[in-house]
Fold this sequence. Notes:
Blueprint: H1 3-7, H2 12-20, H3 24-32, H4 38-44, H5 53-68, E1 71-79, E2 87-88, H6 106-118, E3 123-127, H7 137-147, E4 153-157, H8 163-171, E5 176-178, H9 186-192, E6 193-195, H10 201-205, H11 207-214, E7 218-222, H12 230-247, E8 252-256, H13 275-288, E9 293-296, H14 302-308, E10 315-317, H15 347-356, E11 360-362
Parallel strand pairs: 1-3, 1-10, 1-11, 3-4, 4-5, 5-7, 7-8, 8-9, 9-10
Antiparallel strand pairs: 2-6
Amino acid sequence: MNFNQVIAQYSWDNVKESIYAKTAVDVEKALTAEQVSLEDFKALISPAAEPFLERMAVQSRALTLKRFGNTVQMFAPLYLSNECQNICTYCGFSLHNKILRTTLTDAQIIRECEAVKVLGFDHILLVTGEANKTVGVDYLINAIRLVRPYFANISIEVQPLEQAEYELLIQEGLYAVLVYQETYHQEEYKTHHTKGKKSNYEYRIDTPDRLGKAGVHKIGLGVLIGLEDWRADSFFNALHLSYLEKNYWQTRYSVSFPRLRPAEGLLEPKVVMNDKQLVQLICAYRIFNENVELSISTRENAAFRNNIFKIGITSMSAGSKTNPGGYAVFPEKESLEQFEIDDSRSPHEVAQMIQSQGYESVWKDWDKVFNL
């Protein structure tokens, strides 16, 4: 059984109704449960849990310190290309946007690596649009080989691939793959992905299964908050996480919390999540699963990021550039960024902020020697 078959057993409307029907009694039960269930998770993300937010934050902080200590993992995205064959209503790279398209050459990738390395990073996330002919497996293999001498930990966020293709990339030193479903609402998914391979809902949702079978070290999950009801979407993401952990238990997992940000041709969010609700969701995930890594990006503002890592976040990006060549090749943004960032502080400034609050900013926690 794959996850497509699992999710087919659920009704979006019934799940949503169940979440909004949760009561304070359900929340209390969830907060005192020895083993937090998916039903408990529903209670923790429900409107009924909002008065319990302070208590949830205390519990989430304690669980995070227990499992991860007072550390925050630092990483940077490195955009290799903004070429894309998909039409997505929310993305600056969407095919219908008339923008300058750029795919980095070998020499440009090396220049970007050198610039990011100077900033102190040892964890890099390689990002491309979804254009298989331009940035397909051969391009990715070559990019990983170019990047590998500079960074101990290499992750990618690219188009979904076949199991055998992931196996090739893992052999080259790939550590983690981030693949966000965007929304688990199948009909709503179709309205936002009208052209390209990404329009295939079933293929995308099966990607983590292919990754698990390929033996990847870590899989990153998430939904794009704003496309649909965030509570229902988050339940299905948690369901997906639970399924994967049971079936591919040797793999590590992370969850990210991207909220829609301004971008070229971007639609207005259908649902707006405020900061308190994002805190609630992060705490709910930590109480539900104390081992999952929780990540926050520079989409969020500095004030929010200054506090959220003390509650449940374990990794964050800093100094991010979301356009290809943004660090050194095209520092003046000659090619369009995927979305606007909010926290524009340098990695050094973010690290100083973390350390000023008694935490350690970790630049490296993995080495390719472990692959031996």
